């Protein structure tokens, strides 16, 4: 097992590279960001951004930004309708092309996230992780990661967490750039966007006793 705490790349290169790449991406993609923001406002209404607290490096909570992909439709009791109902055709397009993720570039610029790392998940999952799964928080969460290029929402939670930990144990310049190139390929072919049983990934309810410990 490699020491996830060490490495010149992780300590001295990864964060400056993230800052430079995210800044360049924001500048180059600013017309796309503007167009998507306008379309979201017209087709889905406001607010344009979806904001949610997520755990980051060492489980520190930060506010993550994405373009919204769902409507605010509710039932007669004021409860949100199922995701499959609120996720419109336009919202599915944003997710399948990963355009909804673009505002996370600002999270990377701020230092909350990295270009590559385990995806930031829900705060309520924190008490459900076993000791192995908790290791995903030993690095900054990423815009994309090893789990995303290995199946994204089409693989199980256990497989996803195992890949997250595998990344933590093998952080390197070469690994990050391989994942970046694979991510670009995945976005173009739109693979593994949804799980096999739901419009969005099912909620994590904890691993079975004895799994991944």
TrEMBL record:
Task: Tell me if Cell inner membrane is a UniProt keyword of this record.
Answer: no
Q: Keywords of this protein's UniProt record, alphabetized?
A: Membrane, Transferase, Transmembrane, Transmembrane helix
One MF term in the entry's GO annotations: transferase activity
InterPro entries in the record? Bact_transf
- Say yes or no: keyword Transmembrane helix present: yes
- Family named by the database record: Belongs to the bacterial sugar transferase family.
Q: What is this protein called?
A: Sugar transferase
Q: Which organism is it from?
A: Niallia hominis
């Amino acid at each position: 097992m490699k020491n996830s705490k060490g490495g010149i790349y992780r300590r001295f290169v990864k964060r400056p590279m993230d800052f430079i790449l995210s800044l360049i991406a924001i500048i180059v993609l600013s017309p796309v960001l503007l167009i998507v923001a306008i379309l979201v406002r017209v087709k889905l209404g406001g607010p344009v951004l979806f904001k949610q607290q997520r755990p980051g490096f060492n489980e520190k909570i930060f506010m993550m930004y994405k373009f919204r992909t769902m409507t605010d439709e509710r039932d007669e009791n004021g409860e949100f309708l199922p995701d499959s109902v609120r996720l419109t055709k336009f919202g599915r397009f944003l997710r399948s092309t990963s355009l909804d993720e673009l505002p996370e570039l600002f999270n990377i610029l701020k230092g909350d996230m990295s270009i590559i790392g385990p995806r930031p998940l829900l705060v309520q999952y924190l008490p459900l992780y076993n000791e192995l799964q908790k290791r995903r928080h030993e690095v900054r969460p990423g815009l994309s990661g090893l789990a995303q290029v290995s199946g994204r929402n089409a693989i199980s939670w256990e497989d996803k967490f195992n890949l997250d930990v595998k990344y933590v144990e093998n952080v390197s310049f070469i690994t990050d750039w391989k994942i970046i190139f694979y991510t670009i390929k995945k976005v173009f072919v739109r693979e593994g966007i949804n799980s096999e049983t739901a419009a969005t990934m099912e909620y994590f309810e904890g691993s079975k006793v004895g799994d991944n410990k």
